[in-house]
């Protein structure tokens, strides 16, 4: 199974939070859900970090080749 | 005198001389009349008994021979010339030797100012009734004529003034000049012919008929019916620049525009080049200003769009991160820590939560997480 997208991971995290908030999960279940939630958080956070990095990199490249500025001192 | 006929059976036949005599007698009984016309072919010689001239109808061209006793003619001291308008008082007569019909003049009067005025007024009424002076007949003059036709006198200062005024206002003006007699008995025909000729020339877009100031008689040719009709049917717009402000020759009424000075005429037929150039320059300046303004506006808009574009991913990222952190906050708040606080503990072996004793062997190393803190431990036995 391929890695979930950010949105899929976030949706799952949100449903876990709602499940836990409803309070009808057993302790055991709650711990499992919590662990899964923390893992999903790590996945989402890593994806955001990666996206941020790509955006920064792209912005840097765009700044370098800014049109009209090439010939100016 | 008796008119005798010879009888041939039932046919009465006259000799030529008796016929002429009969007609002559009959004509001599007609009353004396006044006849108006233009003097042409005036022949007078000291050794002749009579003076001969032909009276011509200026409008229709009909002719009438006139004779007058030389003594009577000389006594009038008219000093008549060809082309002059006269009133002749006389009776019809037949010159019997030749069978020529003519008017025997008893008196001749030069057509006076009063008569001229009356005739002019009649002509004006007639032409007005035909609609020749109507405002709706007036054509708009071209803004920038290719060529200007100019009909003026050969001697006239009017010509020089008008040429100066036109070229001063618009130096590149192209002018076709038709010089003609503008005074005297031949003037009206000469001007009319010059007008027709100039209209036939290529690229003529407007015609100016010009004459400087002069006496009432001097300006009369510009009220001549032939010229007025020629102006009315002129294929291009016409300007009458005849005489001064107070003069109103009929040419002023029939032309598409009138001017009382050469400067005014120039204003009518050509644009002011200096003003034209200035206006063009202003247009060009505002054009480039407008183009530059549009360019600047578009560039600002583009830059704005670019800034938004650059900010958008970060903005989206931050919004996602905020949502994520919100979910994480709620997750943490719900963590079983509260349960641990009540005395429970979570046991992990190699990061796995231990849910069954079968997961561990004696001697295995485990992590124990408590409500507050955690510690490592070793399994003594399994049950």
| Helix content class of chain A | over 70%
> How many helix segments of chain B?
11
**How would you classify the helix and strand content of chain B by structural class?**
alpha/beta
Treating each run of at least 4 consecutive H or I residues as one helix, how many helices of chain A? 2
Oligomerization category of the chains in this entry: heterodimer
Can you put this structure into words, describing what you see?
The complex is a heterodimer of chains A (73) and B (383). Chain A has 73 residues and is mainly alpha-helical. Chain A is 75% helix and 0% strand. In chain A, helix 1 (6-22) packs antiparallel against helix 2 (27-64). The longest helix of chain A has 38 residues, at 27-64. Residues 69-73 of chain A have low confidence and may be disordered. Chain B has 383 residues and is an alpha/beta fold. Chain B has eleven helices and 16 strands. In chain B, the strands form four sheets. Chain B has a five-stranded mixed beta barrel with strand order 3-4-5-7-6. Chain B has a five-stranded parallel sheet with strand order 9-8-10-11-12, sandwiched between helices. Chain B starts with a strand and ends in a 5-residue tail after the last strand. The chains are: A mainly alpha (73), B alpha/beta (383). The interface between A and B is medium-sized, with 26 and 20 residues.
SSE topology sketch:
The complex is a heterodimer of chains A (73) and B (383).
Chain A: H1 6-22, H2 27-64
Chain B: E1 5-8, E2 11-14, H1 16-28, E3 33-43, E4 50-56, E5 63-69, H2 70-76, E6 85-95, E7 100-110, H3 113-129, E8 147-153, H4 157-169, E9 175-180, H5 187-200, E10 204-211, H6 216-219, H7 225-232, E11 238-242, H8 250-254, E12 257-258, H9 262-269, H10 273-333, H11 337-341, E13 346-349, E14 352-353, E15 365-369, E16 374-378
Helix pairs in contact in B: 4-9, 5-7
Which tags fit this structure?
heterodimer, A: 73 residues, mainly alpha, 2 helices, 75% helix, rod-shaped, B: 383 residues, alpha/beta, five-stranded mixed barrel, five-stranded parallel β-sheet, 11 helices, 26% strand
